[in-house]
Specification:
Layout: E1 6-11, H1 16-25, E2 34-37, H2 39-49, E3 53-55, H3 63-72, E4 78-82, H4 92-104, E5 109-110, H5 113-121, H6 136-139
Parallel strand pairs: 1-2, 1-4, 2-3, 4-5
C-alpha cells in the first residue's frame, strides 16, 4: 500500500479562492506531498500557504495538458480540480482531456470542496494502492489499413 504522494492542483479563476481556503484548512495533509499545479494556482499556493509546488504553464497555455501527461506517465496519485461550472472556458477541450485522462488512468478526482473532503478524510488517503488499468490488448490491436 502507498500513501497519496503526488497531488495535482488545478482551479479556475473563480474557484482559486475556494481551493486556497480549503488547502489552508487542510494544510497538514499536504506537507511532504509533491504538489503539481498549473501556473497561477501554484504561485498562489506557494505565496499564501508556503508549500512548495512543481508549477506548469497556466491552464490555457498548456498547463492542463502538462498535468495530463504526468497522469499518463503514472506520476499523479490524486487530482484536485476546482472547476467553475458556470463560466465558459476558452480551453474547454483541454479541461475535458485532463478529466478524461484522470478517468482513463483511474486517478481519484475531487472537483469541489465536498469531494476533496471525502478523499482526504478517507483512510485510503494514507494507504491506497490504485489499480492501474491494463491497456495491453488495446496497444496490441491489429489495425487494418
Amino acid at each position: 500500500m502507498h500513501p497519496i504522494k503526488r497531488v495535482a492542483l488545478v482551479a479556475h479563476d473563480n474557484r482559486k479562492r475556494y481551493l486556497l481556503d480549503w488547502m489552508a484548512r487542510n494544510r497538514e495533509h499536504f506537507v511532504g506531498t509533491e504538489l503539481l499545479t498549473t501556473g497561477t494556482t501554484g504561485h498562489l499556493v506557494e505565496e499564501q500557504l508556503g508549500l512548495p509546488v512543481v508549477r506548469f504553464q497556466s491552464g490555457p497555455l498548456g498547463g492542463d495538458q502538462q498535468i495530463g501527461a504526468r497522469i499518463a506517465n503514472g506520476e499523479v496519485d490524486l487530482l484536485i480540480f476546482f472547476w467553475d461550472p458556470l463560466q465558459p472556458m476558452s480551453h474547454d477541450p483541454d479541461i475535458k482531456a485532463l478529466l478524461r485522462l484522470a478517468t482513463l488512468w483511474n486517478i481519484p478526482m475531487a472537483c469541489n470542496e465536498s469531494s476533496a473532503d471525502f478523499i482526504i478524510s478517507s483512510p485510503c488517503f494514507q494507504d491506497y494502492q490504485r489499480r492501474i488499468p491494463d491497456f495491453t490488448s488495446y496497444q496490441n490491436r491489429k489495425i487494418q489499413p
